[in-house]
Amino acid sequence: MFKYLSNLFKEWLIQLGISEHSAKIIEDYAGLILIVFLSFIVYFLVKKILIKIVHAFVKRTKNKWDDILMERKVLTRISYLIPLLIVNFFIPYLLADYSITIKIVQKTLQILMVAVSVSAINSFLNALHHIYQNFEISKSKPIKGYLQVAKMILYIFATVFIISILLGESSFGWLAGFGAFSAILMLVFKDPILGFVGGIQLTSNNMVRIGDWIAMHKYGADGTVIDISLTSVKVQNWDKTITTIPTYAMITDYFQNWRGMEESGGRRIKRSINIDMESVKFCTPEMLERFRKFQFVSDYIDKKNKEIEEYNTKYNIDNSVLVNGRRQTNLGIFRAYLKSYLHHNSKISDTMTFLVRQLQPTEFGIPIQIYVFSKIQEWAKYEDIQSDIFDHVLSVVPQFDLRIFQNPTGADFKKLF
Q1: Distance CA 80, CA 110 (A)
Q2: Which of 56-65, 172-181, 380-389, 406-415 has the lowest mean pLDDT?
């Protein structure tokens, strides 16, 4: 039918006085223009009608993955192939007498088809990543790096296809010499290759996930991981700045991951106060009587007194000299007070490490360290809990006839004058 209509058009041109040769040229190129026009009509119908019908159907489904495919315009990009395929199919018949023109047009169309195909596949991979992120496993097993490798391979193959089209090669024999450039390629793609290997190790060994709190001071990173890609890991610091770390650096360098703390259900409080050694002393009966009024240690004092009296009686200790036998000290009672005080704090865990200990004395006094875990991990609330504890500790120290050690200040020197 198309050939019949084409011949009628040619005869009409001849009747108008146009030479047969010119009429043949006009006939051929008019047919080409008509096919291009018809192909775009088909494309318009597919895009405006068929895709809209599919889009309306997708909206009614409960699945999210088909909505994501539509949002990423995967079908729209595939529809771009329709006019290219139609024109490419009819070109040999329309321009049979113009071999050079056929080659130029076909090569152009084939390059465009490769570009459109790459665009469609790229959109599909982006949609696949979006779909995967809706699953919980995406936090522990990110695939962004793998998809970036797939895109890189896709672009390489697309480049190979385009070169083959331009060179007119039906095979890839010319790639035999491609190995000679391997050293250059390794240099150019050094970071992606290292990043890919590092990404595999990070995910397979479950070293870091999106949402983890990590600290890597070499790169100035201390915050939450927000993205893991082929070449870099992005960390949003607590001051809202973004630090980018090379993926392979996470394998070769040291970094701290706080995920274990978050999964444990507690957050460590590890802080010390320094007690002036000159304020440590044996407790007199008057001191013990005063300390008994402190609710958190009254039972401890009575129990310890009974234990000490039994020991001293058993070994006939001369109590007139304080260094003989066993005695309670204000520092020992203070430590007992801290333990009881913390045990009565509902925000401190009793199931995790719980220590109130005395560290090695230094020129700055005797460090009394609190080593416990808060049940609350949220940073602001955790800091409030920690501050409340030490506000109380610092305030209560003088009640045990102890002094906090600190270096002299200007106010101390003023008292000398």
Answers
A1: 13
A2: 172-181
Q: Find where tokens 């469609």 sit.
A: 120
pLDDT band at 321 (very low <50, low <70, confident <90, very high): confident
Is 268:371 a contact under the CB 8 Å cutoff? yes
Domain spans of the chain, in order of start: 2-200, 207-259, 267-414
Task: Work out the angle at residue 250's Cα, subtended by the Cα atoms of residues 199 and 138, and round it to the nearest 5 degrees.
Answer: 40
What's CA 125's distance to the chain center, in Å? 19
HSE-CB of 214 using CA atoms within 13 angstroms: 29
Q: Which fold has domain 207-259?
A: SH3 type barrels. (2.30.30)
- Cα separation, 45 vs 319, in Å, equals 107
- Residues with Cβ within 8 Å of 354's Cβ and at least 6 positions away in sequence, in order, are 339, 342, 343, 348, 371, 372, 373
Asked if 247 contacts 232 with a C-beta cutoff of 8 angstroms, the reply is yes
Residue with tokens 């990110």: 142
H-only helix segments in 61-143:
65-71, 74-79, 81-94, 99-132
pLDDT (tens digit per residue) in 247-280: 888 888 889 888 887 778 899 999 999 999 999 9
Instruction: Provide CB contacts within 8 A for 273, sequence distance 6+.
Output: 367, 368, 390, 393, 394, 397, 404
Question: pTM for the complete prediction?
Answer: 0.56
Q: What angle do CA 273, 277, 283 make, to 5 degrees?
A: 100
Helical packing angle, 298-314 and 330-343, nearest 10°:
140
List strands edge to edge, sheet with 355-358.
Answer: 267-275, 366-374, 355-358
User: For residues 213 and 223, what is the distance between their CA atoms, to the nearest angstrom?
Assistant: 5
Q: Which of 71-80, 105-114, 317-326 has the lowest mean pLDDT?
A: 71-80
